[in-house]
Structures are given as C-alpha cells and as structure tokens.
C-alpha cells in the first residue's frame, strides 16, 4: 500500500498485555511511532509538566503529539486467527445444524456464489471494512475455493491496509458437485498462483526483518475435503517453503472425527493425518480442537503448532467446548478465532466473551468452579479465564499462533504499531458503556487512574463494541474505526 507516513507520538493511557496472568496499565504514557510504523520508544508515567522535557530528551521538540482524551486508552489490535470471509453473508443463520449438515445446507451454497467476481468484490469490500472497524488488525482469512475471488479478497485487504493471511480453500472431494475443485492438480496449481500473486502485492524488503502486511497461507479446508494426493502435494509445497503458514480445521465435531478416521485408516489420529502429510508444524493454525485425545495434544505440542479457539462457533454448531486450559497448561500456543459463520459475530470482543463463558461452563462441568488459582495441579485446566488471560489470547496469543510474536500483539520498541484507540465516553464525556464509573479521571492519583483503567478494560471487553473503537492503526497507519473517514 502506498502511503506517506510521518512519525507521531501518542500521550495518554496505554494498556499492554504481558502474559496470561498480567497486563500493564500506564495512565500517562508517551509512545512514539516512527515513519515506517514501528514503535520507537515508550516512556511510562509522564506528568504533563514534564512532557516537553521528556520530548526534548528524545530529540523530538518539533514532533506532533496526539493527546488522548479522558475516557480513551490504547491497546494492541485484536488478532483473529480463524475466519471465513465468504461466509459473512450467512452469518446468524443455520444454527440448527451440526457441522457436516451445516456445510452442505448453508455454507457451501453461499461460498459457491463467489464464482461471481462482482459479487466477491462487493461482498469482500464490506466484509474487510467491517472486520477492521471491529478492531481486528491481523486476520487469518479463508476465502472460497475460487482463485479469482480470493485474489480480490487479498487486493481489498491490501488496499485497506489490514495485516492478514489469505488463503483459498483446497477441497476436491466430499463436497457438492457445484462447489468442488475438479482435480488435485487444479487445486495445487491455483494455490501456487495465489501464493505468487499475494507475494507480488507487497514484496519483502531485503533490509527489513518484518514480514509483509498481506501474506498467503495454505488452506486445506479439512482432511475430509482433501484427497491423499492433494494433501501430499500441499505437504510438499509446505516443505519447500518453511515460512508459509498453514491453516485448517481439526477435531471440531464427533461425526467429522469418525468420518476422518474412516477416510484415513492408516493415520494414528485426526492430528496424525495432517502430520502424515507434513502439514503439522510450528506455523500451522488448527481451528477448533474441541475433542483432541491426549496423544493428539502431545503431537501438536511436539510440532509446536498453534490452536485457534473458536468458542462462539463451538457453541453455535453444538460442537462442544475446547479445553483451552489444558492446552495452555501444556504450553501450546492458543489464540482466538471468530470462525464466521460458524460463529455469528466478526468481532474478537464476542470471541473473548464466549471464551470466558466456555471456560466457566467447562469448570462447572468438571466441578471445579473456582478461579485460576483454586487447584494446585493445573493452572488453567477447567478454570475460569481471567481478564489478563482473555486479553492475552486476543493479542499476544494470536500473534504467537500466526508466527508474528516478534512483530505484533503487544507494545515494545521495534514492534509494529498495530493498535486501537478505545473510547468509553462519548463526545460530551458521558459514559457509552452502561454503568461505567463517571469519576473525574484527570484529578485522580496515578494508582487510582490505573484501577479505573483496569475497570474500563474489563467493561470494554464484555460490554463494548465497534462504537467504542475510535481508531484502528496497522503498522502506524490509521486504517479504520468509528472516526475513520471512508
Ligand atoms: N470444517 C470444514 N469447513 C468448515 C467451515 O467452513 N467452518 C467450520 N466451522 N468448520 C469447517
Ligand atoms: Fe472455520
């Protein structure tokens, strides 16, 4: 994307995820972004009367400072590790089905419409705009099986300045006649064409350690929809291209698992199918993982693959509850996914809310209704997810799953400025989130300001929506949000 940027400095409240157990709150933070959109430096606790001195010490006397208003704070952008762009048109329908019937009756017919490039352009333009405005700065998109429509999806993501992985589905069997790839050779050829096309949009700079904003991703839809020769060709493609990410579905639904086991009798398990074909590795994103066996969990851990937790979809398609606490205890990378339209909301806020509910239901089912600290044997398994854990999964966790942990997910010098300016008040200063404490913030002590900000974050995560997301930045560029001029 061509854009002329200049460095800028933000002054105000910054909330930064640190780990599954903590985040930092800096009510009076100075955060400088350089001309290529990376974070130059961060200074906490800058009193207004020392602002000019701090700026001078950084050699930035002339720099423009963007001062946040009371009620605003900055957080890292959200990372959606799993969604389907061509399913947005049927979001909120089909919840009466389970996975395989839902695919046949609801999803495949909708995706088939993306053979029409005009429909694809119109739909994807509104989809990507909506995803960005919901605060998703990095998104892992599945397209349909169509090469041309998926190129259009990548064009739009690139033009809008979102960070993303874009893949076209590989699917050459067990799909309806009107929506299936004619052969594994066609599927592989179109995949290779798409990879080259997306890489030509934003070529890697030789002198940059950072990866391009929009990247291709291998997308074998799921084992059921791919023949052995297709999976094996994709595995070969992957092995010749170690940086290429892979995304697929795993162990979402019991009927899906039985059918997969029937189709691949020689594989040790569902996860074993992907492993057998060289598709289980450190940059593989496995969506759902609701019903994994112990052996599969160990295999996934040993390969360092990541899991996309899609709780809304797992509830909506009656798939079950993924035991993410178990995965976190094992040290497996976990991020959140909206899985539209198995999930019925494009916003990661909704995934956060349902991840919280899912963890509580899981803990109730196992008779362990305590908070994270109530068992000695496990830290996260069968426990509630705390606010720091939920915030982590939506940001740092997602970045790790995408292999972007050094670039996005939190704020640190050298990382990309992918961020949201959140506002919990309206123009007149009144709370936009019901029940929010309306104390005059400016006159509070730093410690009291921190407490308020913690409360604001919690309220935003559970009661907020895109009306609270004022500005969305990707790589330092203002790309969306409520105040973005379109
Ligand atoms: N498994 C294979 N395809 C899909 C899909 O589109 N959505 C979900 N949730 N699971 C799948
Ligand atoms: Fe999915």
Automatic annotation (TrEMBL):
Lineage, broadest ranks: Eukaryota, Fungi, Dikarya, Basidiomycota, Agaricomycotina
Spell out the NCBIfam families in the cross-references.
guan_deamin
Q: Which residues form the signal peptide?
A: none
**Cofactor annotation comment:** Binds 1 zinc ion per subunit.
Q: Does the keyword Hydrolase apply?
A: yes
What pathway does this protein act in? Purine metabolism; guanine degradation; xanthine from guanine: step 1/1
Cofactor(s) needed, names only, are: Zn(2+)
What function is annotated for this protein? Answer: Catalyzes the hydrolytic deamination of guanine, producing xanthine and ammonia.
Output the Gene Ontology terms for molecular function. Answer: guanine deaminase activity; zinc ion binding
* Organism domain of life: Eukaryota
EC numbers, comma separated: 3.5.4.3
Q: Which UniProt keywords apply?
A: Hydrolase, Metal-binding, Zinc
The family database entries (InterPro entries) matched by this protein are listed as:
Amidohydro-rel, Guanine_deaminase, Metal-dep_hydrolase_composite, Metal_Hydrolase, Metallo-dep_hydrolases
Q: What chemistry does it catalyse, as a reaction equation?
A: guanine + H2O + H(+) = xanthine + NH4(+)
Query: Which family does the UniProt entry place this protein in?
Result: Belongs to the metallo-dependent hydrolases superfamily. ATZ/TRZ family.
Q: What class of enzyme is it?
A: hydrolase
Q: Identify the residues that the record assigns to the Amidohydrolase-related domain, covering every copy.
A: 73-479
Q: Which GO terms describe its cellular component?
A: cytosol
What is the name of the protein in this document?
Guanine deaminase
GO BP field: guanine catabolic process
């Amino acid at each position: 994307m061509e854009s002329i940027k200049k460095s800028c400095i933000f002054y105000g409240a910054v909330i930064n995820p640190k780990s599954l157990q903590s985040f930092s709150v800096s009510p009076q933070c100075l955060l400088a972004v350089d001309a290529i959109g990376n974070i130059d430096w961060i200074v906490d606790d800058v009193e207004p009367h020392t602002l000019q001195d701090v700026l001078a010490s950084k050699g930035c006397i002339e720099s423009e400072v963007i001062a946040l208003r009371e009620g605003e704070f900055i957080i890292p952008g959200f990372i959606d590790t799993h969604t389907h762009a061509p399913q947005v048109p049927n979001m909120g329908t089909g919840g009466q089905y389970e996975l395989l019937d839902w695919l046949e009756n609801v999803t495949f017919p909708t995706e088939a419409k993306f053979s029409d490039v005009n429909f694809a352009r119109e739909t994807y333009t509104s989809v990507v705009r909506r995803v960005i405005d919901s605060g998703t700065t990095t998104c892992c998109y599945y397209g349909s099986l169509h090469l041309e429509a998926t190129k259009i999806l990548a064009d739009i993501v690139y033009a809008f300045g979102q960070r993303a992985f874009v893949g076209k589905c590989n699917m050459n069997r067990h799909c309806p006649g009107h929506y299936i790839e004619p052969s594994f050779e066609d599927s592989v050829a179109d995949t290779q064409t798409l990879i080259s096309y997306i890489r030509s949009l934003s070529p890697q700079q030789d002198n940059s350690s950072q990866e391009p904003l929009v990247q291709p991703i291998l997308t074998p839809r799921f084992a059921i929809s791919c023949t052995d020769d297709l999976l094996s060709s994709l595995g070969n493609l992957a092995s010749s291209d170690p940086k290429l990410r892979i995304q697929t579905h795993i162990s979402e639904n019991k009927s899906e698992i039985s059918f997969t086991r029937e189709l691949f009798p020689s594989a040790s398990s569902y996860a074993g199918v992907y492993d057998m074909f060289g598709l289980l590795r450190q940059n593989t994103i496995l969506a759902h993982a609701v019903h994994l066996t112990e052996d599969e969990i160990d295999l996934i851990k040993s390969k360092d693959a990541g899991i996309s937790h899609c709780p809304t979809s797992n509830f909506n398609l009656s798939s079950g509850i993924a035991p993410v606490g178990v995965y976190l205890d094992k040290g497996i990378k976990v991020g959140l996914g909206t899985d539209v339209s198995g999930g019925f909301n494009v916003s990661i806020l909704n995934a956060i809310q349902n991840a919280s509910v899912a963890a509580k239901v899981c803990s109730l089912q196992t008779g362990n209704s305590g908070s994270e600290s109530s068992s000695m044997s496990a830290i996260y398994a069968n426990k509630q997810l705390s606010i720091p854990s939920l915030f982590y999964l939506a940001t740092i966790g997602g970045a790790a799953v995408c292999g972007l942990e050094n670039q996005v997910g939190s704020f640190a010098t050298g990382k990309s400025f992918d961020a949201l300016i959140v506002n919990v008040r309206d123009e007149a200063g009144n709370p936009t989130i019901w029940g929010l404490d309306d104390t005059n913030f400016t006159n509070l002590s730093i410690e009291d300001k921190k407490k308020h900000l913690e409360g604001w974050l919690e309220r935003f995560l559970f009661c907020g929506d895109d009306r609270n997301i004022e500005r969305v930045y990707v790589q330092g560029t203002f790309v969306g949000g409520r105040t973005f001029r379109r």
